[in-house]
From TrEMBL:
NCBIfam families: CDF. It comes from Nemorincola caseinilytica. It is found in: Membrane. Residues 9-202 form the Cation efflux protein transmembrane domain. Residues 210-284 form the Cation efflux protein cytoplasmic domain. Keywords: Membrane, Transmembrane, Transmembrane helix, Transport. Its main location: membrane. The keyword Membrane applies. This is Cation diffusion facilitator family transporter. It comes from the Bacteria. InterPro entries: Cation_efflux, Cation_efflux_CTD, Cation_efflux_CTD_sf, Cation_efflux_TM, Cation_efflux_TMD_sf, CDF_Transporter.
Amino acid sequence: MPVRIQRYIAILSVVLFAAKMLAWWLTHSVTVLTDALEGIVNMVAGFLGLYSVVLAARPRDTDHPYGHGKVEFISAGIEGTLIIIAGGVIVYEGVHNLFIPHTLQHLNIGLAIVSAAGLINYLAGSYAVKQGQKLNSMVITSAGAHLLTDAYSTIAVIVGVSIILLTNNQWPWLDAVVALFFAIITIRTGYKVLRRSISGMMDEMDLGTLKKVIEVLQQHRHPEWIDLHNLRVIQYGSLMHIDAHLTLPWYHKVADADKEIHELEALMRSHLSDQVELFIHIDGCMPYQCKLCAVPDCPVRQEPLQAQLQWDINNVWTDAKHGKGS
C-alpha cells in the first residue's frame, strides 16, 4: 500500500512539474517560477520517497537488525534540504526581478494551468497525509504535507498573478514581491521537514506518541502490572518499538509472565498500530512495592495497598522501580 501511494505521488509530480514549467515559459513570471521550482522538489522528493518506502519495507537482516525504516528519515531530510534550496533560488530570482522587472505574457493561460495544478496538489496531498498517518509512514505523510503546502502556495500565486492581470501589469515589481513572500513560506516548510527528519534520526522522544502509549496502558492496566518504568518508544518507519521494564508478582511462573506480555502486545496493536514490536524486561516485585500493588488476594503481601501509582510521562521513563522510599 505505501509503495503504491508513493508511486502515484512520484508520477503525479512529473506531470505537474511539466505543466508548471509550461506556465512559466508562457508567462515569464517569477511568481509562477516559484511554483515550478516547488514542482522540482516534489518530483525529486517523490522518487526519493518511493525508493525509501521500498527499502523500508524490506525485512530486517543481519546488517540491519532493526529493519530499514530509518531510511524514511534520511529521505525526509533530503526533501527538507531541497525545499530550502528551492526557497533560496526563489529569493535570488525575486530580488533580481525586483530591480530588473520584465514584461509578463499570456497570464490568462498561465493562471488556468497553475490553478488546475494547485487543485490536483490539494486533493493528492490530503489523501497522502491521511493515508500516511494511517500507515505510520513518515515519507508519505511528509510528501502529503509538502503537496498541501504547494497547493496553499499556489493559491497565493493565483492571487498574485490575478492582481497583476487586473492591473494590466502596471506594477511589474509586484511579481517579484509575491515571489519573495512565497520564498519565506517555502524555506519555513523546508525547515520543518528537515527538523522532523533530524529528530527521527536522533531518536528524539515523540511526546504525543509516548503520552498515547501511557494513556492506553493506564486505561487497560491489569492488577498484575504492578509497576512500569524505563519506557522508551521509538519509530522505525512504520514499525513502532516499545521498550519497558514491567514489574509482575515475583512468584509468577514463566508461563504467567509470557501470558501478560502477549496481552500487553495485543493491547498495543489494537489501540496504536498493528506494527508494534515490544522488548519487555520483567522485574519481580519487591516488598516495598506492596503498598502500590493492586493484586487481589496476594498470598505474600507484607503491606496493605495504599494506592496504585498513576503512570504518566514524568514517572515511567525513569530507570528505577517505584515505591522505594515513598
